[in-house]
Design goal:
Blueprint (H helix, E strand, L loop, with lengths): L1 E2 L6 E13 L40 H13 L7 E2 L2 E4 L9 E4 L11 E6 L5 E13 L3 E3 L8 E3 L6 E7 L15 H18 L11 E11 L9 E6 L2 H20 L8 E5 L4 E6 L10 E2 L6 E2 L2 H8 L6 H12 L3 H6 L4 H11 L6 H12 L6 E3 L8 E3 L4 H12 L5 H12 L6 H7 L8 H14 L1 H8 L6 H11 L6 H12 L1
Parallel strand pairs: 12-13
Antiparallel strand pairs: 1-2, 2-10, 2-11, 3-16, 4-5, 4-15, 6-7, 7-10, 8-9, 11-12, 13-14, 17-18
Helix pairs in contact: 1-4, 2-3, 7-9, 9-10, 12-14, 12-15, 14-15
The structure holds adenosine-5'-diphosphate and magnesium ion.
Magnesium ion binds next to loops.
Length: about 500
Amino acid sequence: MFTMKGKTCDWELVIGLETHIEVLSNSKLFSGASADYNPTVSPNTQVSMVDVAMPGMLPVLNEYCVEQAIKFGLGINAEISRHSRFARKQYFYPDLPQGYQISQPADEPPVVGRGWVEIMGDDGNPKKIFIERAHLEQDAGKLKHDVHPSKSFADYNRTGVALLEIVTFLDTKNPENNSYISSPDEAERYLREIREIARALGVSRANMEEGSMRADVNVSVRPVGSTEFRTRTETKNMVSFKFIKSAIEYEARRQIEIYENGGTVTQDTMRYNQGDGTTSVMRSKEDALDYRYFPDPDLLPIEIDDETIERIRATMPELPSATRARYTHDFGLSEYDAARLTETTDISKWYDTAVADNASRAKGVANWMISELFAHPENWDVKNEKSGIVNEMRIITPSDLAELVDMLGENTINGKQAKEIFIKMLDGESGTPREIADKFGMKQMTDTVAIEAIVDEVIAKNPAQVEQYKSGKVGLLGFFVGNVMKATGGTANPAVVNEMLRNKLA
Ligand code: ADP
Ligand code: MG
C-alpha cells in the first residue's frame, strides 16, 4: 500500500519486470565466436561472419544455450515448450549489424513457459511471483562514445551472445490475483531470487554491475480495491537494485500525482536519470516501434523431447529456496542469515562444509561468516576466472572456522580470544585455531575460584562505584566487568564474570 502524504486515497503498485540474463556458454547463440566478451578482450576480436550478418552466412543454434534455458525453466517451476520458434525482431541501430535481433515471437510460447518463484512478501509471508515466459534471444553490440571526442565506435564482441529474457506475469483476467510484484522491496527480492537461481544452476553470472543482468521495469498504480489494472510505463535497461527501487518509487509517485490531479497516465517508455533519481519520457506510445516480427527462415524450430528434459532435471542441484528452508528449519537460522548464505552456491557449500551437519555449530558458523568473513573480501578468491562464480575461501578454511566455533562452544576460549585467533589466521598465521591458541597461550580462565578472587579485589578497590551501583546506576556493571577482564588479561569467561558480579553486587 502506498499512501501519498495528505491525501485520502490509498494506492497500490503493480510492477512487471522483464529481466535479461546473459547465458553462460563458451560460444554465442548462433555462431562459434567466443561468448566471453569481458572488458579485457580487445574490441571486435570475437566476432564471426554470422554475428555481423555477412551475406550468405547461416546461423546455427547452439544447443547448449537451449539446455541452459531448460535448466533455468526447471529452476523456476516452469512448463518447457516441446516446440518453439525463433523470429526476427526488426529495427535499425548501429549496435545491431544484422538489422534485426533474433528472438522468440511475442505471441507464441517460447522455450520456457509459465512458471513461478517464491519470495518473501512485504507482509513477511512467502509470496509467489508468477512468470509468464522466458525466451532466448541475441544480445546487441556495444557502442562506445567516450573513446574519441567526435566519433563513436562499435564493439561487436557481445553481438549474438545468448540472453534469456524472463517476463513476470500479470493476471489481467483476474486482477484480484496478487501474485505480482507490488513494491520496490519486492522487486529487489524477486531480482535477487532470479539471480540466485541463475547462479546456483550455472546459467548466468547474473551480475548487474557487469551488465550480465539487466531489467526493464513496468509500473502502474491503482486505487486499493480496484478491479482493473491501469496504464503502465516502462523504464528501460536498469542495472542496479538501488536505481530500480528508486525508479519504481519515483514513477509511482508521479503517476499517483497525475491521477489525483484528475489527469491520465500515458503508456510511455521512460529513461531513468541517475543524477536526480527521476524518470523522463524516452518515447511515447505513438512512436512505438513496429518490429514486424516474422519467423526466421534460416532457423529450424526448437524441438525438445522428454528425455532431454529428464536428463537435465537429473543434474539439478539443490536450489537456493530449498537450501534456505533447510537452514531455517534444520539449523534455526533467521530468514536474513539464510538469504545471505545462499547468495551463491559456493557460499552455501562453504557453509555446509563447515557445519558438516553438526547443528550445534550452525548458528555460530553463520554469525562468523556473515559478520566477519564477509567483511574481509581478501579471504575470497575467484577460482574460476571465466564464470566468476566459483568463490573459494583462500586463507580460512571451513574446518578452521568450525574448530573456532567449537572452541567457543566448549568455553576453551572466549569471544575476544576467538577474534584474535581469527585475525591471526587472516594475517597468515599457520596452524589450526587450537594450535594458534596453544602457541599464544590463549586459554579461557574457567577456574571460578581464581576469577572470584579477582572479582572481590575489583569490588574492594572501588567502593564509590559499588555505592552508586547499589543506589540504582546498574549501567556501572560494565565498568566492573571491564576491570575484571583487564585484570585477567582478557582470558576470563565474560558470562561467568557478569553473573558473579551481579550476584555479589546485589
Ligand atoms: P511489452 O512486451 O510490450 O513490454 P508485455 O505485455 O510483454 O509488454 O509486458 C511486459 C511486462 O509488463 C510484463 O512483466 C507485464 O506483466 C508487465 N505489465 C503489463 N501490464 C502492466 C500494468 N498495467 N502494470 C504493470 N505492469 C504491467
Ligand atoms: Mg517490454
